[in-house]
Design brief:
There is one protein chain. The protein is an alpha/beta fold and about 375 residues long. It has two domains: about 190 residues, Glycogen Phosphorylase B (Rossmann fold, 3-Layer(aba) Sandwich), CATH 3.40.50; about 160 residues, Glycogen Phosphorylase B (Rossmann fold). About 40% of the residues lie in helices and about 15% in strands. It has 13 helices and 13 strands. The chain has a seven-stranded parallel β-sheet with strand order 3-2-1-4-5-6-7, sandwiched between helices. A six-stranded parallel β-sheet has the order 10-9-8-11-12-13, with helices on both faces. Helix 7 packs across helix 12 and helix 10 packs across helix 13. The radius of gyration is 21 Å and the shape is globular. It starts with 5 loop residues before the first strand and ends in a 6-residue tail after the last helix.
Amino acid sequence: MKNNKNILIISPFFYPEPISTGKFNTDFAIALKDDGHNVTVLCYHPFYPNWKIKESQEELNGIKIIRGGKYLAFSKKTIVRRIILELSFAFFILRKIREHQKNTDIIIPVFPPSFAFYSILPFLNKKIKKVGMVHDLQEIYSIDKRGLINKIVHFFIHKIERKCYQSCTKLVFLSKEMKEKAKELYALQEIKLEVQYPFITIKDKCTNDLEHLFDKDKKHVVYSGALGEKQNPIQLLNFFSEASKKLDNTMFHFFSEGEAIKELKRLNKSKKIFFHNLVNKENLEELYNKSTIQIIPQKENTSKGSLPSKMPNLLASGCKVFVITDANSEIENLFIKHNLTLVVTNWDTDILVEKLVFLINKQIDLTAPKSNCKKNIYIG
């Protein structure tokens, strides 16, 4: 007989939140429920990509969802809205934790944000097992920023993340690179650290809802998903702009929403670059199948901070993948080891365009990455 547990997940991002963290958390909670556990989630109403709360009454069968943040308003300034998110979610969790930790066997805080878990640590029952799920190392993204305010923010990020991670019974990271960096930054014990690569979640059910966006006579270079600082959006637009001048019969697409996309739309001068809303979850496989190349960009010196959760799905779909990441990163090593599609470790636009032309024209057996994913190379 299974030893079923009462599990409490803490994260503002949950169903039907379209951000990748929300999708990951949702799939994770469903998997726990399907395994026989009792799952409760403390989360916010959806607010991505426009950082505006959209009240949701949607439910998932067998999962108890407690939502907050209904009347919350965010700022357009990135640092201010992150502070609002951290503080408001901490206040929400402080109000709910006494009631919802009763009879709980395992609490799973999803980082970031971190301040909510940091705030409730003094009030948690010591018998509850604490398993942290780490999506991003926020300190990585704050290290190189200049200015007094950014230095203060970096100081508190380090202090809070260190306390949160050290207080967990177990920590699960989405990449080995993240795990090793966190171990170094926060003096963590190896015995309580684990790596679980993102899951393959696409099904073999391809829709036909996006056909009007993809001219069958052209090739399509696509970026899809959340777009923020860690994806280096301005440089990505510059790359697309230069490539659009040199590649005939090719269209470039952004499938994303939010403040960064609004800025790219304002800056864009190319008639070959198109902007679309995020696609629904059920259309992801169609999007990947209709893409000639999918781009996965990481800003310089940030590969240790996160691993794109969509990568296993992209590889499992058989789509050509063009990754821009740091030299000697875990992603680069994985691609080289398993002879996958292209990795570039330089944001020089001329180099990116040259490599893109090479990849578009290169004949590749796309069953290899799909087969490797099915053999769990990327999912732990």
